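Notes from hallway chat w/ T.B., transcribed later so I don't forget. T.B. wanted the structure written out for a chain they're using in a teaching module, and asked if we could keep both sequence and structure tokens in one place. Agreed to drop them here.
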Amino acid sequence: MNFITEFKERIHRLIGKLFSSEDKLMEETVSSSKLASFKANIVNIFSMLRDYYNGTYRDISWTTLIIVLLTFFYFLSPIDIIPDFIPGLGQLDDVAILILCFWLIKKDFDRYRKWKGEQKSSSE
């Protein structure tokens, strides 16, 4: 098996493991508009990855997939730029990484949300 095929299979398995949290995140979305929008974007990233994994949406660049996966790895990793035990500042690096992720994948993410909206409107 060549390296690219093996790498793709590993990414597919990892994405499959991440989906178990998507529904739980959606239920916990709060009503504050900015926070709700931020959490909804996180849920939509899970949705985008799930649609990619299931094969229903493939218009995502490898760069976007890698950026999203690296962001999730950062959150799962016990190593932080600013340790979490420092009140307030410890979570600042986590938020900065998320904002950077959203900024870097904006084009693919906007295209996905447009596609998802079209899918919803065509099914109604």
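Follow-up for T.B.: The two ends are 43 Å apart (CA to CA). Might be a good example for the class.
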